[in-house]
């Protein structure tokens, strides 16, 4: 396969909207990135991360040294949790405003980077807050520059225009998508991802799989979405078991990182539909539920519902996961069971009841799908009509 002819230690510059650096040792590019910021008269930055991984991966030492060598001052907000909320974004923004930050650096997985994107908007719109941003009370057209140092291989947020934050008091987990929050630069260094726990390795990779399955089957999908979906799924099916078996396998981490990146580009074009629209209420209600696990639980039931609308596309892109699909609209059950078998093969067997939901929750979850800002847009581009009955059936089939 062509992958064997790539030198994973050769840092590639990948240009989408964001300039992304992919490869073992890519973290060393942070000095060049900060040098560029300095030429933009940026001498103070807000850094956002979770509590531990920015240090335990070794990323922080590189960033700190580069900040010091470029005489850029910083203030650190390291309280971002999985499924970040508007309170965290507002706290970080206030810290950045008081400090006079002119850019934001997010270090971590999707949560810190999404929170950093949100703060970057609010540093420009100083009279607004995160709740107003995520309830669509205003439409931002600018944000301070964003640098994304990615420590997981799943969200694709380091190269796309999306961000997600929870409004916990309402159970809302909306998404925003604005051109102003494309990161200026991104770093995807597989060597920073070797300490990802097994379950997180699984869940972030499943997130990327869902990104492309959805993006390739929306009403606005384009040929690039399908191309990227095929490659994303092929790479993850091939390299995820290797990363699980040997977390230090840099080749596996490299291709999982690349797969995540191109998956981010895929749904940046084709958008998302059922799986993300229905998962956001799950982790909106239960912030401790890992996003990728919620997606995995829902995926087989969603494949069952949408297969007849996109049988040839799904047969093609799912081929590495499910053998023998021919693109016959009647194969929905076979595809659904095949996806479930593949998930079981990598160790993901949970159902909604296993993560604490009961069937009486279906009505509340369904209402959140239709009441949460932004999720209606996702439902509207699904390949089949996103009725309440179909949403309820997907939830019911996921128990």
TrEMBL record:
Transmembrane segments: none annotated. Keywords: Oxidoreductase. InterPro entries: ADH_Fe/GldA (IPR001670), ADH_Fe_C (IPR056798), AdhA-like (IPR045910), Alcohol_dehydrogenase_Fe (IPR039697). It comes from the Bacteria. Residues 20-190 form the Alcohol dehydrogenase iron-type/glycerol dehydrogenase GldA domain. It holds the Pfam family ADH_Fe_C. The keyword Glycoprotein does not apply. Residues 203-397 form the Fe-containing alcohol dehydrogenase-like C-terminal domain. Belongs to the iron-containing alcohol dehydrogenase family. This is Iron-containing alcohol dehydrogenase. It comes from Clostridium oceanicum.
């Amino acid at each position: 396969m062509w992958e064997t002819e790539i030198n994973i230690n050769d840092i590639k510059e990948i240009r989408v909207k964001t300039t992304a650096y992919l490869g073992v040792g890519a973290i060393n590019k942070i000095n060049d990135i900060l040098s560029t910021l300095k030429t933009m008269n940026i001498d103070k930055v807000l850094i956002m991360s979770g509590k531990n991984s920015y240090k335990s991966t070794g990323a922080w030492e590189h960033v700190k040294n580069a900040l010091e060598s470029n005489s850029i001052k910083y203030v650190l907000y390291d309280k971002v949790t999985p499924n970040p909320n508007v309170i965290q974004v507002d706290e970080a923004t206030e810290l950045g405003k008081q400090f006079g930050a002119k850019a934001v650096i997010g270090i971590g997985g999707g949560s810190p980077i999404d929170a950093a994107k949100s703060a970057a908007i609010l540093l420009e719109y100083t009279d607004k807050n995160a709740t107003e941003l995520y309830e669509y009370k205003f439409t931002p057209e600018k944000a301070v520059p964003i640098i994304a140092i990615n420590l997981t291989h799943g969200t694709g947020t380091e190269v796309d225009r999306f961000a997600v934050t929870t409004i916990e008091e309402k159970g809302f987990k909306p998404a925003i998508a604005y051109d102003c929050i494309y990161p200026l630069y991104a770093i995807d260094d597989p060597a920073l991802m070797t300490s990802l726990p097994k379950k997180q390795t699984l869940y972030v990779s499943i997130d990327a799989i869902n990104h492309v399955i959805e993006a390739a089957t929306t009403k606005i999908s384009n040929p690039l979405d399908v191309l990227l979906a095929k490659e994303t799924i092929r790479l993850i099916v091939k390299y995820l078991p290797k990363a699980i078996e040997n977390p230090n396998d840099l080749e596996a981490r490299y291709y999982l990182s690349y797969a995540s990146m191109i998956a981010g580009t895929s749904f940046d074009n084709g958008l998302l539909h059922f799986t993300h629209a229905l998962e956001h209420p799950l982790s909106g209600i239960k912030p401790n539920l890992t996003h990728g696990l919620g997606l995995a639980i829902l995926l087989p039931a969603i494949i069952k519902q949408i297969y007849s609308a996109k049988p040839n596309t799904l047969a093609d892109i799912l081929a590495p996961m499910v053998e023998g699909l021919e693109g016959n609209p009647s194969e929905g059950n076979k595809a659904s069971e095949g996806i479930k078998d593949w998930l079981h093969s990598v160790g993901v067997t949970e159902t909604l009841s296993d993560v604490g939901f009961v069937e009486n929750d279906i009505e509340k979850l369904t209402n959140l799908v239709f009441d949460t800002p932004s999720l209606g847009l996702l439902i509207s581009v699904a390949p089949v009509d996103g009725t309440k009955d179909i949403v309820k059936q997907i939830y019911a089939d996921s128990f």
